Amino acid sequence: MKVAVGSSDGYAVDQHFGQCDRFMIYDVDEEGLYVLSENRKIGNPASQNGHEQSRLQAVAESLADCSYVLVGRIGPGAAAVLHNLGTTALAVEAPIEKALDRLLAFLHSGRGAILQ
Which pairs count as long-range contacts for 93-97, CB under 8 Å and 24+ apart, including other chains? Predict the structure, then answer.
């Protein structure tokens, strides 16, 4: 599975989805081991006037191969566009490693099985 992470500094999950112009893509294997595989430049989904639906859709489509998107904040409209493409958006502010570990612990606990 792939997880996209919005980070301004490469250390923490701290960016609002609408402000991300790139995502760090992590490959996660069946054992829960993850590795940074790509820095994906996607362009900013928001303009000064807010989200433009066509831009938001294009960004969501560029992340459609990811099961999850971890960002500091995300609005309900953007989360819904991602969800419609099969990607679950989660708002979390933490170091990337800790956020990924929490996600994987939740998924492996059985409570997150429906999210996979």
Answer: 93/12, 93/13, 93/14, 94/12, 94/13, 95/11, 95/12, 95/13, 96/5, 96/7, 96/10, 96/11, 96/12, 96/13, 96/24, 96/70
The answer, yes or no, to whether residue 45 has pLDDT greater than 90, is no
Looking at residue 62, its pLDDT comes to: 94
Residue tagged 């938001």 (tokens): 56
**Residues 6 or more apart in contact with residue 103 via CB below 8 angstroms:** 3, 68, 70, 90, 112
pTM: 0.87
Q: How far apart are CA 13 and CA 31, in angstroms?
A: 23
Longest dimension (CA), the chain: 43
